[in-house]
Design brief:
Elements: H1 2-23, H2 28-40, E1 64-66, E2 72-76, E3 98-100, E4 107-109, E5 122-124, E6 128-134, E7 146-148, E8 152-156, E9 170-172, E10 177-181, E11 194-196, E12 201-205, E13 217-219, E14 224-226, E15 242-244, E16 251-252, H3 256-259, E17 266-268, E18 273-274, E19 284-286, E20 293-297, H4 298-301, E21 309-311, E22 316-320, E23 336-338, E24 363-365, E25 372-373, E26 384-386, E27 391-392, E28 409-411, E29 418-419, E30 433-435, E31 440-443, E32 458-460, E33 465-468, E34 482-484, E35 489-490
């Protein structure tokens, strides 16, 4: 019996030891290192660190995780308001695989040893605007998979040795101070899924991303890149969802293969110098402020049945809206329609019954065209409507305000509208800008307009034939900043 009891005791001890090892009881040197951040950070906002003390197992501390040997492998101290220089001792965690210090108010400069640690897979230092750093040569043994530095003061050039980060899947350096060329060695990052480089000072040609076949987001917007985008074989990037190349001085044609990616939902190419023919089938098509030219049939645009946003403004295009025999169902999901300065001469027929198109369409900008005829009907839940600088000629709808119940911007400026301003305009209680200038409107100004100044910031009735007395009994908390009644017959 005694031997059996001894055996049972040994088994119990064995399992106890196993449980202790599996739970990863903190090693003393790891505890000592972890207490470094607590002593360095702002003592008034310790957050996760408030319960860190020598009497408890550091592997159970909030924000820290250990392996089975009690060595710290993950640290997440995000949103701690440290307001202190980044301590060097983070580099002393030899087994660290993940370090997240976003939104901590860190200052100073990142020690070079941290991003080069051979065990580190995740490094997130984002949203620390005073934290400085730069990329040195990455070692061949680097294991980084996620590198997030957006909204910091990191800068300098990206070295060719970034190709050594063969396991990298995500890199974000948005709104930093990086400059110089994006290295061609990016082609070797075959595991890349998410690349976010906007609002830096990158220059030179756009590199090829043909090897990054898992790429879902590519954002290089607001840089100084140039050249074409032909170097990338877009047909091989079958998982792309978002491409943002706005305002980076690109030119040439847009490869048709880019538009053939079945997963692509957004393509943002505005403010470049692209040319050639365009007919993408997307959910979001924004090509404003380029040099596109040529003639587009509205019937071709109506084939883009999944489109949510269409913006072709400020190009050299001519859009023919006269040959359409379609109904609103051709654009069942459209929310934003911007065709400013597109040489439109006829209001597209698909828009005529706009009063039925209430569920989605909220923004219409057709200013600066050659549209004529009676005033188009208005979608009831539109928030932004700009029909200015056209040749519309008719009376304003008697119940016009009922169609502007949620609108904050409404402009019919520089047309040929006649008749009086209906008092129903005052039903548009959310209007911030009302511009009816440079038409042929006559009669009195509705008295209720002065009472709308609780929300109205701009009222422009300039250059009409309005007469009578303007009732200027504005309320005490008037929000009106611009009132222009010049060029009328008021007394």
């Amino acid at each position: 019996m005694r031997s059996i009891s001894l055996f049972s005791w040994l088994i119990a001890v064995f399992f106890s030891i196993s449980v202790i090892l599996a739970s990863g009881q903190c090693q003393s040197d790891q505890r000592r290192l972890l207490l470094g951040p607590k002593n360095s950070f702002n003592s008034t906002s310790l957050g996760k660190l408030v319960n860190w003390n020598k009497t408890t197992d550091c592997c159970s501390w909030d924000g820290a995780s250990c392996d089975a040997g009690g060595r710290v492998i993950r640290l997440d101290l995000s949103n701690q308001s440290a307001s202190a220089p980044l301590p060097n001792f983070f580099a002393e965690f030899r087994n660290l695989t993940s370090l997240r210090l976003s939104s901590t108010g860190l200052t100073g400069r990142l020690p070079e040893e941290i991003p080069h640690a051979t065990t580190l897979r995740t490094l997130d230092l984002s949203d620390n605007k005073l934290l400085k750093g730069s990329f040195q040569d990455f070692p061949l043994s680097a294991s980084l998979q996620t590198l997030v530095l957006s909204d910091t003061n990191f800068g300098g050039q990206v070295p060719e040795s970034i190709a050594n980060l063969g396991q990298l899947t995500r890199i974000e350096v948005a709104r930093c101070n990086f400059s110089g060329p994006i290295p061609e060695s990016m082609l070797k990052l075959t595991q890349l899924v998410y690349l976010d480089f906007p609002s830096n000072n990158f220059s030179g040609p756009m590199p090829s991303f043909s090897s990054s076949r898992n790429l879902t987001q590519l954002d290089l917007a607001f840089n100084q890149l140039n050249g074409t985008i032909d170097s990338t074989k877009w047909s091989g990037l079958s998982k792309l969802v978002i491409v943002d190349l706005r305002k980076i001085k690109l030119s040439g044609t847009i490869p048709p293969t880019l538009f053939g990616i079945p997963s692509l939902q957004q393509i943002l190419l505005s403010q470049n110098q692209f040319s050639g023919d365009v007919l993408p089938g997307l959910k979001s098509l924004i090509l404003s402020s380029n040099n596109f030219s040529g003639f587009i049939q509205m019937t071709d645009i109506l084939k883009l049945r999944n489109l949510f946003i269409l913006d072709l403004s400020y190009n050299k295009l001519s859009i023919d809206g006269s040959a359409t025999n379609s109904t609103l169902s051709s654009f069942p999901n459209i929310t934003t329609l911007k065709l400013a300065s597109c040489n439109l001469t006829k209001f597209p027929e698909f828009e005529v019954p706009l009063q039925n198109f209430t569920s989605f369409l909220t923004v219409i900008d057709l200013h600066g065209n050659q549209l004529q005829g009676p005033m188009p009907l208005l979608p009831q839940y539109a928030t932004y409507l700009d029909y200015s600088n056209n040749n519309f000629s008719s009376f304003l709808l008697e119940g016009i305000g009922n169609y502007l119940s949620v609108a904050y911007f409404f402009s019919l400026s520089s047309n040929k509208f006649e008749g009086s301003i209906p008092s129903s305009i005052c039903n548009s209680t959310y209007l911030q800008v009302l511009d009816l200038s440079n038409n042929s409107l006559h009669g009195p100004i509705p008295h209720c307009l002065s009472q709308m100044s609780l929300s109205l910031g701009v009222l422009n009735l300039r250059g009409n034939k309005l007469g009578g007395v303007f009732h200027d009994a504005f309320p005490q908390d008037c929000m009106l900043q611009t009132l222009d009644l010049n060029g009328n017959l008021l007394h």
